Amino acid sequence: MNNYLTSNKELVVLEVANNHQGDFDHALKIIDTYSEITTGYREIFDFAIKFQYRNLSTFIHPDFIDSDLKFVKRFLSTQLTESEFINLKEHSEKKGFISMCTPFDEDSVEKVVQHGYGILKIASASLDDWPLLEAISKHKNIEVIASVGGSSLEKIKRFYSFMKNHQIPFGLNYCVSLYPSMQEQLNLSFIHELKNHFKDIKIGFSTHEGPNSFETAGYALHAGASIFEKHIALENTEKKYYQNDYSVYPSQLNSWLEKLREAKIIYGNPESRDKIVLLELEALRGLKRGVFASTKIDVNSEVKSSNTFFAIPAEENQLLSNDLSKFNQINIKNKTPRNAAINYDDVIIVNERNFIEKIRDEVKLDLENNNITTPKGVDLEISHHYGVDSFYKFGTCMCTLVNKDYCKKILYQFPGQTNPEHFHKIKEETFILLEGDLSVTVDGKLTEMTKGDILTIEKNRKHSFISHKGAIFEEISTEHRSDDSFYTDEKITSNKNRKSKILLN
Hints:
The chain is an alpha/beta fold.
């Protein structure tokens, strides 16, 4: 895996998108022309050429192939073959560009990996497309950059947590998903927000302003951005191809790069961004994939990936692909025929996310009240051994602060909550009680711990613990491994969904 995201140089991404117009020779000319333009800046910036992959046979619902919808017509009229994309990718690399590609569906994810692109891009519309993200998470040897247009800070945190949990190297691009974006809609101060919340990753800026707007990328640079994305095209001298309102020509990119090099500071108002997000969400709705029945679904059946497919366009009240999250239990109220849209009125949704967030907030507040500080970017791992419904009776919360040859965790027990009997074959652990009470049973022997007490539990020793009034304690151990917890109750061991992770702060 290449380490483009750890480079000391800023990364400039030149987005081709559909500006190749489905013409292979025209695409080659774009690459060659912009290779010449960027030559004088190679010592300053790294450069990438970006393409987009869609499996149009599944991405577009079959009933809308011949429709007049803007996105459908554009995608179908600008298709390239797989072999042409491979040739373009290889040609861009020969010209010194990093190869980069945005997949919009699961098949395209596999193609991006198979074709050996250096960086995988996640579009703003896909930031909470959980089926797509799960497909991406299967591949650990590719770097990812994700745009966050139209996303609340909470949604971005969820994506951050997902990528961290799957150990995928990634960066975030702030953008405004309005095409073109006006100066008053940019709110570049939000880059500071992202930098403050996500200190361990690169933050970038994907620009959609008009082609003669040259200064904003420079402002973003000094606001903390180190990745920049710009749509590129060639002059349409023969009036052969459609030209959008936000792509630059070669001379304009040169001016843009000059201003990026000069860089002055501009600030916006993050609070005013909420009004823009509403417009962004409306604009992005056309790119969101709706949930359709892939087979007849009977009443009370669960809606899941195996009996649905995702396609555009989505109806106004239709379930979207991002609704198929592991935190949502979705059941059909009305019998649904094959290929039919599944609407919110047709289902019952039980969302565990709110419950998980409630637990997070309770733990966070109690830690703060007891002056126990945890680093930024730490996950809270919530164990609900018999399901979330019985969490306050059986469960544990923990934050892993360090996990190398040695491990340090902060554990939290709610009042009356039990962590069921289990043992570790590899790990030896020591508990240090910081607050509250803890009753620990090891191989049938009970130890009552009070504040300041220390207890070591050797490997292969069966143990459980309960707190009557609530407890906060440290665990110091040898390396923790996810496959090293063995519960006496097979129901717990067989429950693959007994843990949830959420960003603590």
